[in-house]
Write a structure and sequence with these properties.
Keywords: Membrane, Transmembrane, Transmembrane helix. InterPro entries: FN3_dom, FN3_sf, Ig-like_fold. It comes from Scytalopus superciliaris. The chain is 50% helix and 18% strand. The chain has 211 residues and is an alpha+beta fold. It folds into 2 domains: 93 residues, Immunoglobulin-like (Sandwich); 62 residues. The protein has a 4-stranded antiparallel β-sheet, with no helix packed on it.
Length: 211
């Protein structure tokens, strides 16, 4: 068939073949396999690891995702026919391309950066939640303590007020008793005003006895 493999790199290769007038099928089968050993492998379709299908209107194809520094065999046949030796070519891939290596490193670095960013965001969210929860709990404890203190202050003030009132009443009662003892007639002001002689009689009798 005159198959040629060109533009070989560490990961890609271009296979070219002449159009075959005898191939009346709808597509070409491009089969390839790494580490080919003609002594152990046959040219049957099941012996090939990869297979691509290309329309018959095309006469070239770019094979990708090859392994660097690897020996490959590539065959082109009409549709699903088994290849023969004159329909195959053996080639070796080159070292990894610097550009693809740098792209791989960039992709790896980008993946690591994205993963680290996600982990940092998760850790930051957990820490923020913990801080907010702690602040809320402390604030609630302060409010409870403030309410407890307010209730205690109110109770003490009320107790003091009751004690002060009771003490005032006791003093007033004691004063009234003292007044009653000293001035028996001064129990009621109205009585003194209406009947002043009620208090004068004992005084008069006392004065007469002294005379």
């Amino acid at each position: 068939m005159g198959i040629t493999v060109q533009n070989i790199t560490g990961n890609t290769a271009v296979v070219i073949w002449p159009k075959m007038a005898s191939c009346v099928d709808s597509f070409y089968s491009i089969m390839y396999h790494p580490n080919w050993n003609s002594m152990l492998s046959s040219y049957s379709r099941k012996s090939f690891q990869k297979e691509e299908r290309v329309p018959t209107s095309r006469s070239s194809f770019v094979v990708e995702n090859l392994t660097p520094l690897t020996r490959y065999i590539m065959c082109v046949t009409c549709q699903s026919a088994n290849p023969s030796s004159d329909q195959c070519r053996v080639f070796n891939t080159l070292e990894r391309d610097p550009a693809s290596a740098s792209n791989t490193k960039k992709e790896l670095a980008l993946g690591i950066w994205l993963t680290s960013s996600v982990l940092l965001l998760i850790i930051a969210a957990i820490l923020l939640y913990g801080c907010l929860h702690l602040l809320y709990r402390r604030r609630r404890e302060r409010l409870q303590e403030h309410n407890r203190t307010s209730k205690q202050d109110y109770g003490e003030a009320w107790t003091k007020s009751v004690a002060y009132t009771s003490e005032g009443f006791s003093r007033q009662r004691q004063q009234m008793q003292d007044t009653e003892e000293k001035h028996p007639c001064g129990i009621q002001l109205a009585t003194i005003i209406e009947n002043p002689s009620a208090c004068n009689e004992p005084l008069m009798s006392t004065s007469k006895s002294q005379e």
